[in-house]
Amino acid sequence: MRAMLIVNPFATATSPAGRDALVHTLSAHFHLDVEHTTHRGHAGELAQRAVTENVDVVIVHGGDGSVNEAANGLLDPPQVSDPARTRPALTVIPGGSANVFARTLGIDGDPLQATQQIIGLIDSGRRRRIGLGHTEDRWFLFNAGMGMDAVVVHAMEDKRHAGKAATPSRYLWTTISSFLRNAGNSSTFDVQVPGGPTVTGARFGFVSNTSPWTYLGSREIRTNPNTGFDTRLGVFVATSTGVLRNLPLATRLLAQADPKARHLFRDDDVAAVRFTVADGAEPIDVQMDGDYIGAFTDICFGHRPDALDVIAPVPDRIVADQITSDSTR
């Protein structure tokens, strides 16, 4: 078994001693290539190389941004992707501040425990295929969004570049302050779901590939509770950024109650969705898997089932479905 370990040495929750321990443990079980990222996009370049070198598993030790880069390196762009091509499986040893993808997959939050978990999964042959969201040229693993959440991500990136840690409390305060600061912003966009309604005057929109959409510390935030890696996309669109209108909705999200509001459009299983800014209006910020990717006037999100092999625990529900399917053949 040949594995490539891609390490982001600048990730929030990594340390030299911790990285050395991971390398030592993994090297005892696999033929291991260790690569450290040095610039934005490097994890994708390394994962692309892993495909050409017939590596069996790519292990990313870093945050969600590094994992997103690696997934995009393993796969061809969505419009030219060849599902029949053999590619390495992907797995994660958490090293970032949020680690949404790893936590959603059921990977242990402690890097050393996660390492032992992944070794056990690989040795037992346990893996699963998951669906991914995508734009025309890029894949996303768990969420994307236009408007307020992208404004928050952009602000958090600015703070991290200024040397401030991405703590849950800083994320929460940045979210609250961004809502207050942008409550009077008049920027809106339209949301189109093929075969479904068109929502006009959207102030922010989330697109989910799974649930939870994110975490606030240990608390799950589920915007689309019925969306998962084995469904299509979830859409969560609000037509107001008013504090009084969104406070009850935020309370429901924090309480993990079913998200409902009069100014909210939600669908937990759509094939695609398009966000369009009115002609002549300013582009609006967009984020993908917690990374700010720029401002857009028109962006489409689609879904591809069974797009990526991952080394992760298989949920009991999927195991039960497989057993039922096998018994009826």
TrEMBL record:
Its cofactor is Mg(2+). It comes from Gordonia bronchialis (strain ATCC 25592 / DSM 43247 / BCRC 13721 / JCM 3198 / KCTC 3076 / NBRC 16047 / NCTC 10667) (Rhodococcus bronchialis). GO terms for cellular component: plasma membrane. Keywords: Kinase, Transferase. It holds the Pfam family DAGK_cat. It comes from the Bacteria. Residues 1-139 form the DAGKc domain. Belongs to the diacylglycerol/lipid kinase family. The keyword Nucleotidyltransferase does not apply. GO terms for molecular function: ATP-dependent diacylglycerol kinase activity. PROSITE patterns: DAGK. This is Diacylglycerol kinase catalytic region.
